[in-house]
Amino acid sequence: MAEHSLIQRYNDVLLAELPIQLAEEVADGLAEANARYARQGMSCDDAAQAAVAEFGEARAVVAGLTRVSPAQWTARRLIATGPVVGGCWVVALIAGRAWEWPVPSIARALVGAVLITSVIVLLTAAVARRYRVAQRAGVAGCAGLALIDASAITMVATTAPTMGWLALLATCASMLRLVFVTRAVRPVLARGA
To answer: In whole angstroms, what is the distance from residue 130 CA to residue 135 CA?
Structure first.
C-alpha cells in the first residue's frame, strides 16, 4: 500500500532535518498512528490528517526534538560552566606569572583563537533551531574545548616552573570538563549529524 501524500511530505521534512535514525523513529510512530486511524474505519485522507494532528506539524516536531537534543543540552552546560573553568585558569595563570613562561606567541594566539571559535560554535549549538546544526556545532564545540583543556594541562605540566595549588585546581577543573565532554559527546555522535 502506497504511503499517503500527507504522510510522505511529513516524512520528507523529518528526513531533511533530522538524522536518519531519529527521523525513522518518528516516521514509524506516525505510520502506526495512521494505520490505527485507518483500522478505526477512517478514510485514507482522514486517517492521515488525524495522525498528523496527533503528532503535530513536522516542523514543530523537529523544533521540539532540537530543543531536547543531546547537543543542545551539552552546549548549554558547557556555556554555563565555562566561566568557572576559565576563571580557574585565569587566576592560576596570573598567580603563576604565565606571561614569563617560554610559550611561543603563535601557540598563545592559536589557543585564544580556538577558545573564541569554540565559544561561538557552542553558542550556535545552544540556540540552533535546526537539529543538524545543533549536532554539528555541539560536536565541534566539544572538540574545541577538549583541545583547549588538553593544551592548558600540557602547558602547565611542561612549562610552569612550579605546580601551585591554583594550577592544580585549574587542571582538575579542565580534567572534569574533559570527562564531561567525552561522556556527553557519545550520544551526540550516536545520533549522527
So the answer is: 9
Contact 21, 192 (CB under 8 A): yes
Per-residue pLDDT of the chain (193 residues; tens, 9 = 90+): 458 899 999 999 999 989 888 999 999 999 999 999 999 999 999 999 999 999 999 999 999 998 888 889 889 999 999 999 999 999 999 988 888 888 889 988 999 999 999 999 999 999 998 898 999 999 999 999 999 999 999 988 888 877 788 989 999 999 999 998 888 877 766 655 4
CA–CA separation, 37 and 49 (whole Å):
10
Concatenating the DSSP letter of every residue in 83-107 gives HHHHHHHHHHHHHTTGGGS---HHH
Cell of 66: 532540537
pTM confidence score: 0.78
The residue extents of the domains of the chain are: 5-65, 69-191
Q: How many CB atoms lie within 10 A of CB 43?
A: 10
Helices then strands, each counted (H, E), the chain: 8, 0
What is the C-alpha to C-alpha distance for residues 65 and 87, in angstroms, rounded to an integer?
Answer: 33
* Short-list 20, 17, 33, 22, CA closest to 6: 33
